[in-house]
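not sure who needs this but someone in the group chat was asking about beta-N-acetylhexosaminidase from Sphingomonas xinjiangensis so here u go. i didnt clean anything up, its just raw.
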Amino acid sequence: MRRLAFGVMLGIAAPAAAQDQAALDQLAADLGYRFTIVDNQPKSCPGGGGCFLSEIAVTVPAALSAETDQLEIRFGYVSRILSVDSDVFDSRLINGDLNALTLKPGKRLEAGRTYRVRIIGSGHFFSRNFVMPNAYLVAPGLAPRVIAATRTGIDAETGLETLPFVSPMRDPALATGNSADRTRWLTPERAFERYATRGPATTPDIVILPKPLSVQRPAGATTDLTRGMRVTLQGFGRAQLAPALAAVAGEVAQGGVPVRIVKGRGRPPEGYRLHVGDGAVRIEASDAAGANHALRSLAQQARHEGGRLRPLTVQDAPRLGFRGLHVDVARNFHSKAEMLKLIEQMAAYKLNKLHLHLGDDEGWRLEVKALPELAEIGGFRCLDPSERTCLQPQLGADPARNAPVNGFFSQDDYLEILAAAKARQIEVIPSLDMPGHSRAAIRSMEVRYDRLRAAGRMAEAERFRLREPDDTTRYRSIQNYDDNTLNVCREQTYRFLGTVVDELAALHRRAGTPLTTYHIGADETAGAWSQSPSCQVMMAKTGLTPKQLGAHFIERVSKDLAAKRIRVAGWSDGMGHTATQRMPRAVQSNIWGGLFTGGVAEAHDQLNRGWRVVLSIPDIGYLDMPYAPDPEEPGYDWAAREVELFQIFAFMPDNLPANASLRTNILNQPVTLRDDKPRQAGRAVAGMQAQLWSETVRSDAQVDYMLFPRLLGFAERAWAPKPAWEPAYVAGTSFANGDGKVDLRAVEAGWREFAGRAAAALAELDRDGVDYRLAPPGARIVHGRLEANSELPGVPIEYRDGDGPWQPYAGPVAVRGPVSVRTRSPDRRRPGRTVLVENR
């Protein structure tokens, strides 16, 4: 047996450093590691409140023995650890979700043994995909190494990420956190009942998505766009329409169908009229956005009809002016190629605002020439405990410098993103979250400070230092950081923000698309500053209290931005703490309060302030929530156990309380929504924004999976005319699940029409290389016969009886069971996740 040695840490002779490193490397390669969710309803929880029991099993290889009290296993654990039960290991929090298992005094690891560490965490773990990968070993004087057993994998068939070290969750008792929770996993049998209840989709003649205001089909001959197009423009430049024209059929100099695009008056912003007939196409729009939208509608319908269109007249304009998509590239980075792909999909479905979340605790993703450390340090996570070359790993980040979760956009990258968005009439709204969620910036600027101080340039070092060394305030943010909040009482903070915004504005000017809105975040600010010398001086002068300092920051920054002719935007919790009279007139607030947890009153309050209110309500708009309550589905679920396509389609943005008629709360309980803070007459939301936060989204393929096809429903609801089943808002009206105030049958009829168009859109997504989620089929076995259905019509279903070959499902079929079922993309390129149907 070979003994694993770590120099002076062991009670044996110390080998050379290279041998020590080789021994650590070998242990990291061979160590067993297994994570299991044991119980979501423990009998008692430390400190009260909800908790869950998990277990980490560490298996020491038989050929190795470690004798050390300094070896650590560091691992991501996204809940707060409340207690640890182990004979051998203690646990300590490092920061954020990064924790360490350390050997207790006098304990050592023995070869071939398995050590079980029972951990109680706060909250609940309803999905095995919450577990963070890439745990690693740390030993003094040696380079840390990732434990190979904790790395992610990729399913060869589906292309989906796998977590091989996480135990399956098969016990239905794990689906709930307490006796009041009525949630049940969406089994194939329950999915079958759900899809059957909604009824078969309508076979569409018009597939335009989102749904236009009006469509007519006059009589006449077809127009053959397969010949190409001969385009003439009046009032528009070709560059303004180039991507949309390319999406239709390309152009030819002679012989193609005449396509005339005219700028006219009298239509609403982004509105258009599209007429196809008599062998020609005519588009009238009041602006370039409207002309683009008309071409996108033409492209969808032309492909559906094989390029030979029957006569068609479309009159259209958006219901909501702000139709946004928020993408978080800070928690985990996503590539420029993915952003460009998303921008094209946004244009295809008439979304017009891209909110790029570029900075947070876990990463800074934009090159700033004046402050290069922001990207050079804050853009990467690696195994450097000093954080002089990168940030420590968080959220299970792969520490390799070239890992997809690492990186940043160079200024050239950002200019390319801006150019692509401008060509598609999409506004880019950058966000670098402050004053909380700022750890990446604070640590990066500390590296800058140390570099300049070492060079004797103290004045320059202090100029952008974001840490006040004499501040002894102790706090923990919601994400468990104790050092992530900018000091709002120091001028360095405002100098830093001004420098960043000025560079951003300059980039937007270079791209020919001025920076008109900047999102400061302003959410989830921890209770910092009470012991800050700078803040004590400020509070003594102004009479402010620590709780008022966050609002002071937002008010000051908002005025600074207004002076630059930039609208301030922020999340509603922070914005709501400000005094309206101390804010500029132009303010955007993204409402992220929960539908059943105060979001309705919050939205109405901020509408009544006269602000531009954008609904980002997590129950419906956070597309990092799971599609379904299922232990195999990825996504956090703190706001909703499921955000499915039907729910998004059925959302009522103009009457928020009415959504309670169709929805249940996070415990799947009916709840009455009382309009306790009615909105004033004449106030209406400006728009909706879908959010993709990236804590658990580690690849571009996962971005596609979480966004699509849900983003189709979001685009429909933001653009399409108000449906007849959405009741008019009447101040003070209350709604409750199943009260009949919203006609469920009418909603389901609308869904069947939408589902037909959404199914047609899947072929478009296939063509564009979008790896959207293929919902597992509904399925049941009745009297030995398999019956299956799908969420969207026409999606191919496959089944496998026992270990037999996969076969196409065409209708009820005799099986012996159990049976595996899955869906496949319409282009047959890839299958979806497999689910098992029991033969009961």
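also The first strand starts at residue 32 and ends at 39. if thats useful
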